[in-house]
Amino acid sequence: MTALHPAAGYRLSSLRKRFFRTPLQAALSLASLLLLGTLAWKAFDWAVLSAVFTGEGGPAACKAAEGACWSVIANRWRIIMFGLYPYEEQWRSALSCVIVVVMIVLSCLPACWTGKRIAAIWILGVGLFYGLMKGGVFGLRYVGEEAWGGLALTLFIFVSTCVIGFPLAICLALLRRSRLPWISRVTGLIIDSIRSLPLISILFAFAVVVPFMLPSWLQGDKLYRVIWGAALFFAAYQAEIVRGGLQGVARGQEEASMALGIGYWHRISRILLPQAMRNALPATINQFVISFKETSLVIVVGFFEILASGNAAYGTGEWTFAYVEVYAFIALVYFIFVYSLSRYGAFLERHMAIGTR
């Protein structure tokens, strides 16, 4: 007999100690494994073996089958992904989504981590996205924001929230650390007041209440008011994350830079903030993940993002029974983006050696 590799032997011994230390523990482990295996098999059978994948036969074929009805996705995927966007122009919405994904991927590459490159990527990417979605230039048909929907709208709200909210969060964090009490206390009151409110109430206030408080020329479109509300909410939470990162920087570094005569802005931008953002990286990635998932809340104020588009996809009389499959598909879309953000955060932690001082 060939001997086990030392690493394999260690893993086997570890599993035995963790799950099969006593007869009772071994019985519970085997019962749990059997239960999980049974559930996994039933899920696989429902989702794959007994499922209906093609659109042929329509709802009748799905009702006759015992598994999942993926044909609802084959028939209604355009509504889910593009919402109310005009049918003949949906290629623009799809290309806009690709542009946003490429823009995010390029921003994540270490080779692009310079101010000029990041600025060029985001200015070009946002400009192309907005030009494609709205049109009115280069012979493209004009499509107002009220017709935007699906994945493109979700990505637009997420990216805009982060682009506006992140710099605002840094400003709020620095203001809260001000040595002038009236500045730090007022900033703290603003941050704590925003954090004490649910995001839905802020979105509703910016969408419905704010127009009654502002003149017509200052109101703007409802979509942009909602984005500003979401960005303000993001900034309040991220400001506390940044402030925590600043507090984690050794006080002696700031004192040493002051003793050397380094100016405030150079001290903040070159010494304190880089270290603070390194300290706050795990919490920052978590905040980005939360913000992406919270884009679904804009359905409350009447926007057709991907979740609302999914509701419309099965809301017709012939597909009302297939809501589980629609939500499973939307969950997969969310999972792809959220899992990618989480894995990138883990890569950054390894790249920057977080916690290995």
UniProtKB/TrEMBL annotation:
Spans traversing the lipid bilayer: 91-113, 120-142, 148-175, 196-217, 320-342
SUPFAM superfamilies (UniProt xref): MetI-like
Primary location group: membrane
Signal peptide span: none
UniProt domain ABC transmembrane type-1: residue ranges: 151-342
Recorded superkingdom: Bacteria
Subcellular location: Cell inner membrane; Cell membrane
Record-linked Pfam families: BPD_transp_1 (PF00528)
PROSITE patterns in alphabetical order: ABC_TM1 (PS50928)
Family per similarity comment: Belongs to the binding-protein-dependent transport system permease family. HisMQ subfamily.
NCBIfam families named in the record: HEQRo_perm_3TM
Entry protein name: General L-amino acid transport system permease protein
Lineage, broadest ranks: Bacteria, Pseudomonadati, Pseudomonadota, Alphaproteobacteria, Hyphomicrobiales
